[in-house]
Amino acid sequence: MKYIPLTEEDKRKMLEEMGISSISSLFSDIPEEILLKRNLNLPPALSEKEINSLIKKTFKDNDFPERIFAGGGAYFHFIPATINYLLERGEIYTSYTPYQPELSQGLLQAMFEFQSVMSDLTHADITNASMYDGASALAEAILMGERIKKKEKVVLPKNLNPQYREVIETYLKPRNIEVVEVGFTKEGRIDIEKLKSILKEEVSSVVVQSPNYFGVIEDLYKLGEVIKNSGALFILSIIEALSLGIIKPPFDFGVDILAMEGQSFGMPLSFGGPYLGILQTKKEYVRQIPGRIVGETVDRNGKRCFVMTLRPREQDIRREKATSNICSNHALKALVALVYLATVGPNGLKKIAEINYKKAHYLVKRFEDEGFKLTFSGPFFNEFAVNLPFDENELRGKLSLVDIYGGIPLKGYKNSFLFTATEMNSLEDMELLICAILEG
What is the CATH number that goes with domain 82-341? Predict the structure, then answer.
């Protein structure tokens, strides 16, 4: 959208046409006490050349090291060159849902293939296309559970990613859905015995995150049995989607709803987004899933074509039947995930996941060789928590000397830090990390 400046005369005529005396009159409904009474603290205007110089300097200042050992919900993975090449094709280069969808066959086919690939990956009946990110997808999954079970209580584990918890609380507060917490064991896994006692009450759903915030893989077999026996819905949250390369498909564990973050499938860290939310469920709950579903059919000439099959928002169906007010979607990011998975293929995804697993376990061995202990004893994929004999500032200072970013402080555990190792971390980088921690 081009910016076209207005002259003072232009402004005067526009205000006159609206019947008001000043621009500030447009905001007369805003309470006086919250209005800013001073000018914005902005620098003076710059020339085009000066702006270009400033942007280049800012880019240089923000240059991020490639020795990244941090995860916590966003993971540093390799991005194939095929993604950006295909992403810029005109027939699919949009993140918005078309208002006349059947005219947009390229975008519809991409969304249909995305749904198909994701369902193959997790053994889901239904995949929508798509959600904003993993956190909002999980919140929507909980709302689905409340609609299906008609019970206003959900169980959240204390080893859930804290950022996801904040998003969930924001979603649930207006709905008066009660949150019940369940703790975890020394392994870092959900305490199943305590969960059993909680499930004696009326609960709509139980949320499980695996790998959880500590990087620990939950016992989904046992959890699935306990949750199913209680009559509650089993909602699984996956942030590190690459773990599906070696972990059994989630719906084989009896999962009812899966909310997943797709960032690991070809998306850069980008200082936190935009990422991709993936929401999946069983066929019996298809009418409760938010977003949209693309289907395949034939046109009047018998040729294969694609249609927007389901859009359960208030603009498309009767308001009382709407499941969510999500309007746009992350179709462009869904396409990224599709191209990534098509590029690496099933064997490639498995191999990359195995590399992540082996490198993370090698790094843990190096920590243990130097006398450092893991915070939790449970099995992990590519992320783990380790105890170190210094605080966050000391760790950051040590690692910054060798351009390493990593070690997320674990809240509630003094001097415990989350580390991640992916296919992007070389053995030399790992040795540099250990040496930097040992020095001083």
Answer: 3.40.640.10
The C-alpha atoms of residue 181 and residue 203 are separated, in whole angstroms, by: 12
Tens digit of pLDDT for each residue in 196-247? 999 988 999 999 999 999 999 999 999 999 999 999 999 999 999 999 999 9
Distance CA 234, CA 414 (A): 32
- Only one residue has tokens 């018998």, namely 302
pTM of the model: 0.86
Give the domain ranges of the chain: 67-76+345-438, 82-341
pLDDT, tens only, 338-388: 999 999 999 999 999 999 999 999 999 999 999 999 999 999 999 999 999
Tell me the torsion sign for CA atoms 294, 295, 297, 300: negative
Q: CB burial class (10 A; 0-12, 13-18, 19+) of residue 195?
A: buried
CA 401 to chain centroid, in Å, comes to: 31
Q: Are 274 and 330 in contact (CB under 8 A)?
A: yes
CATH of domain 67-76+345-438: 3.90.1150.10
**Could you give the 3-state DSSP secondary structure of residue 225?**
helix
Strands 383-387 and 416-420, how do they pair?
antiparallel
